[in-house]
Amino acid sequence: MQFRLTYQLTGVPGSKAKTLVRQARDAWVKLGYKFQSSDADWSDPFPSVSMRTEPDDFWMTALTGVVDRAKGEGLAAISVTSPCFAPSGGSTADSASLQRTQVDERAVHRALDHSSRIYDALQVRYSPAQVGDGVSAYENSEGHYVHHSWSTEPLTEDETVRAMTRVQNYFEGVGWTVRHVPTGAGLPAIVARNAEDLSVAQIAPSNTGAVRVAVTTPVVPGGSAMT
Description:
Number of strands: 11
Structural class: alpha+beta
Largest sheet: 6 strands, antiparallel
Strand content: 35-45%
């Protein structure tokens, strides 16, 4: 069991976003937090830093990258994951249920990369982050997943039709399986699946005029590639 909170800044210059993440890393180092593996590879399109506290074992991850290549706008996301502890004086739970499962940062990168390409295909601006937007992690009976969600700015019906057509053409052009799902907004949503990494993208018009985007990518045990 675990509790994870993510704070995300969007629309900042890509270089500034990287500076913010480095500042978070430097602050954590000064506080004595330990790297999980090593410092970020800052040449990576989406570099990330993972650290943890001792001895209480809170985990912090900072991630940055450019999501709008044309304008050079980026994101800076910081996540904190709290372990769960057995109640004092109570019965001891199964230790396996109290262990935190580390999120595969490569799955985070894959989800953000897919989101970035979807953004490019839609060709409309995103709206400021809303409640529930950003990067999160969850698990169910089938496995562990990374989820990234965001919204476009409100669009007219014609703009929505054109944007949805562009993103469908993108999915079909790169080999995603595409299907349509009815929505209360009139226009159907697009649900697309990537056969290579098993990511699923949902592009859904809403009654507010915004188009909601959600990308879910499975975390691969051991960080190995999907087959």
